[in-house]
Amino acid sequence: MKFALATPEHDPALRRLARDEGMPGPVRLAYTREPDWFAGQAAIGHLQQTVVALDARGEVAGAGVRALRRVFVNGEPREVGYLGGLRSLPRVRGGLGLAQGYRFLRALHTADNRAPAYLTTILESNAPARTLLVSGRAGLPAYHDLGRVHTRPWFRLPSPRSQLPAGVTLRQAPSPPPRDLLAYLRREGAKRQFFPVLDEAAFSADPWRLFNSGEFCLAARGNEIIGVVGCWDQRAFRQLRVTGYAPALTGLRPALNGLARLAGRRALPALPPAGHTLDACFATCVCVTDDAPVIFDALMRRLCARARDGGRGLLLVSLHERSPLNAAFSPLERLLDCRSRLYCACWEDGEPFVGSLDPARIPHVEGAML
Q: Which of these, 5, 18, 93, 230, could form a disulfide with 285 (CB 3.0-4.6 Å)?
């Protein structure tokens, strides 16, 4: 097996690999990158490197991605890495390819010496991958478990019963965001571990330039911003393709879709058949003062209504298990929970960085950038 950085000639094979290799979960999904692999990868960091595994015929048999991001670490801006998109064809699994691939990644890591460690997520339902990657064998980096990540759909719309607290109003803001919103995101975001560092320049470069068609919903008390959630529609360059459903959800799907027909598509979207793409968008930059669930609930209901009116059936949001905002989800939304583990992976030179992470700070997870 030979490893190399991907070039445009690898684009068709990489897109095919993404289409064909789905991930386990309640809804089995393939994370596709149509119509251009590299355009889709621009959403995961300001630097992205796709590593391809080439077989004896020079054909792509596997791939993985290394990226760099600017995030807050212990309240200070830092450059941190991200590892993801690990895919391989069944015929090459179980050999020495994984160890060889990580040796190539380590060489990239050493060459630029920019990231002390790498954030990554692994689905809890993907037990073989978790067991292998966290084993530390064959020169793999150490995977330090930072806890569970919940990725759930948000279904609920504004209703007479979902009243805002007295004095609180909601409004929309475009992207790039105005200065008062940027100031809020930097001030409040710095309290969260791995929240993106956002300023005016960030929205003219990868990855946030791709958000310029998105929007923010703000909660304010008077002139003071007290909560923000963005809505990022990535369907033009990254998609979620349904490859199947877990057995329990397969049985429930007809009933859920029947309920959706009765409620109307705006109230409850249907779950599409295998082979179809989810009309989904992602909640991003989730930031609420004092982690108030009632404010988060109001912001998500407003964004959900706007998403449905724009033809986006699902609004997905990722939160760490320790976030108090988890209290806002309904039983139905919890039923469709996709659970993964958040890790900070590093080689020996990154251990001091991992050891310095403040355990009191709740990790922030950008579902749109996984």
A: 230
